[in-house]
Amino acid sequence: MRIALDAMGTDAAPAAEVAGAIEALHELDPAIEVVLVGDQATLEASLARHPEAPVGRLHISHARDRVTASDAPASVIRRKPNSSIVVGLKLVKAGEADAFVSAGSTGAVMATSLFTLRPLPGVARPAIGALLPTAERPCLLLDAGANVDCKPQHLLQFAHLGHVYAQDLMGIANPRVALLNIGEEPEKGDELTLGAHRLLKSAGGLNFVGNVEGRDIIQGVCDVVVCDGFVGNVLLKFYESVAEFTIGLLKKELKHSHEQLNLEEVFRILDYAEYGGAPLLGVGGVSIICHGESSPRAIRNAVAVAAQAVRSGMVTHIAREVSPRVNHQERA
Amino acid sequence: MRIALDAMGTDAAPAAEVAGAIEALHELDPAIEVVLVGDQATLEASLARHPEAPVGRLHISHARDRVTASDAPASVIRRKPNSSIVVGLKLVKAGEADAFVSAGSTGAVMATSLFTLRPLPGVARPAIGALLPTAERPCLLLDAGANVDCKPQHLLQFAHLGHVYAQDLMGIANPRVALLNIGEEPEKGDELTLGAHRLLKSAGGLNFVGNVEGRDIIQGVCDVVVCDGFVGNVLLKFYESVAEFTIGLLKKELKHSHEQLNLEEVFRILDYAEYGGAPLLGVGGVSIICHGESSPRAIRNAVAVAAQAVRSGMVTHIAREVSPRVNHQERA
Which strands sit side by side in the sheet containing A127-132, from one edge to the other? Predict the structure, then answer.
């Protein structure tokens, strides 16, 4: 199995990507190979600093350009055809790689994935899933930012996308799917969530547990929570900052009290890097988006998630899950 | 100055309210008087346990009914005219009290305030303001849940409401007002925020600092942040739970390490009770909504906020701020 890894994505590219790829190859399934996508000379120089690299399973695919924050996401495919994002996704499209992982511009990875891998038949709006740390196992939030101005049927589709992801990647046989809302009662909400609640309630094949409020997510009451991409994006960014803020306050206290404390376990639970990136769900291939400040560990975990998505046949499962249901909606 | 305090609102009513009222009378401006609104016999029995109560400044207004979670908010005014919420707000309406404070059902306080105190001329949508603890001083978030399905001009009005609140209650001469969005660039957002950004940018009399993302709020980059009531409500509830969750994780670690730590300062910063309730802004009177689980301290702080709102002439300021601008919008 070959994972194409954008080697020009992180703020510390390509060092973080190269180190992460090597970690993945050493620690994960020996059937995995990684294709580093980026400038050949730069990557060779970076690899030279890693004598421990398992060279037979580590390849380079040359891409001389790098997408930057100033590139308009939608124009990357046309304006930067030799960028690591475009080259990497084309490897997947051509069947030369089984999945793509990138810590580059979220917008550019998303737009180029949509253009290259195309939405699966029946998927109106592919969505970004993000794993939120909770009191229990993590909760998949989607859409985390791919779509603003959603309609109720889009939220229903997000539920199906999340259902499959939770089964295939989180190992949950019958994932609890919830709708993010401002009250638990079915009659609470705005136009979007009122409509989505009705659709979700009557949808087949979903373990819909009803509305959840902002405060419920963290209690671990559901495995998948669906919302509009605007709300999801605001919430996701807010989560990180509140956790950091709270830890910061506590650290200051610890300093005052001259006490030392091992916070590693706390940081591990709250660390996004543990969860291995956010998948773009609903396109015809595996595409995983990582933070721009991803550590080698985060890259390694994203490669692991990509490999599991491939191994589990997630894309096929999504195609099967979504297609007939969408037709059902259209007929209705 | 008389503050009408719903004595049947908290989960621990009337004990928390009575204790909070007495704290307020002892600690705040001696010109303040509190009218406890609730069942007379119950309140007299509760007061009998407080020999320290300054009886001359503590009054009772009898209301035999209590609004419960099962009462539909909009029907309370009609179905429970003798409830503490309706009786208390009618005292304000009749000029027998200058402000109302309640820890009862948010929906019922809101609906009854709207009906009794009426929206100020030109205010299309009164909004609930909520103070979020941040790295700097608290940030006022509005709307925190009064209005879902907002239009751009509603968000503009929230900005004006928040502007006055920040001036009068937070003592900020030129409050920085921001729009909650999924990107800092003006061209980012959904239909609502794109439209609101345009209105806010060209609005007079506001220190509009542009879009902020979920992660920026906590950094203290603005004094007021406006958003749709759906997003605001989800965010507010999420905030509390993430902070609690993070503290919980750290506490567990502290236990493991057998160390003791004084977390009082941390809890103080993260404690909503410190901030004294959420004002309903844009109605013809002062109405402050508190948590159902408010402590006496939280009640005392809400009375303090109510008193400052009265003293500063907040309602008059809002009327002046909003009215001409709305006319301007209508002419446009």
Answer: A58-62, A33-38, A2-6, A99-102, A286-289, A278-281, A127-132, A139-142, A224-226, A176-180, A207-212
Average pLDDT, stretch A125-140?
A: 90
Residue A195 CB contacts under 8 Å (≥ 6 apart), including other chains: A151, A152
Cis peptide bond N-terminal to B279, omega within 30: no
Q: What Rg value do the Cα atoms of chain A yield, rounded?
A: 20
If phi > 0 it is left, if psi is from -120 to 50 it is alpha, else beta; for residue A192 that is alpha
What is the model's pLDDT at position B252?
72
The band of B202, judged by pLDDT with boundaries at 50, 70 and 90, is: very high
The domain B1-123+282-332 belongs to what CATH superfamily? Answer: Isopropylmalate Dehydrogenase (3.40.718.10)
Q: Which two tokens stand for residue A308?
A: 């599991």
Q: Considering just the CA atoms, what is the radius of gyration of chain B in Å?
A: 20
| pTM, rounded to two decimals | 0.89
Q: Is residue B265 predicted with pLDDT exceeding 70? A: no
A320 Cβ contact list (under 8 Å, min separation 6): none
CB contact under 8 A, B266 and A249: yes
Which of B247, B249, B261 lies closest to A269 in CB terms? B249
Q: According to the model, what pLDDT value does residue B327 have? A: 47
DSSP A139: E
Interchain contact, A235 vs B238, CB within 8 Å: yes
Binary contact (B266, A254; C-beta < 8 A): no
Quick check: B246 and A270 CB within 8 A?
yes
pLDDT score recorded for residue B276: 77
Class of B129-275 in CATH = alpha beta
Taking the Cβ of residue A193 and every Cβ of chain B, the question of whether any pair is shorter than 8 Å is answered with yes
Do domains B1-123+282-332 and B129-275 share one topology? The answer is yes
Given a cut of 90, is residue B273 above it in pLDDT? no
Chain B interface disruption, residue of A250, A252, A260, most B CBs within 10 A: A250
Q: Which helix (H) or strand (E) holds A168?
A: helix A152-170
- Look at the domain A1-123+282-324 and name its fold: Isopropylmalate Dehydrogenase (3.40.718)
Assess A232–B contact: CB distance below 8 Å, yes or no: no
ipTM of the modeled complex: 0.86
Phi, psi of B168 (to 5 degrees): -80, -35
**Residue boundaries of the structural domains of chain A:** 1-123+282-324, 129-273
**Domain A129-273 carries which CATH code?**
3.40.718.10
Average pLDDT score, chain B: 91
Q: Contact B218/A242, CB-based, under 8 Å?
A: yes
Q: Which residues in chain B have their CB less than 8 angstroms from residue A235's CB?
A: 214, 234-235, 238
Provide the token pair at A253.
């206290």
Q: Tell me the C-alpha distance between B231 and A55, whole Å.
A: 49
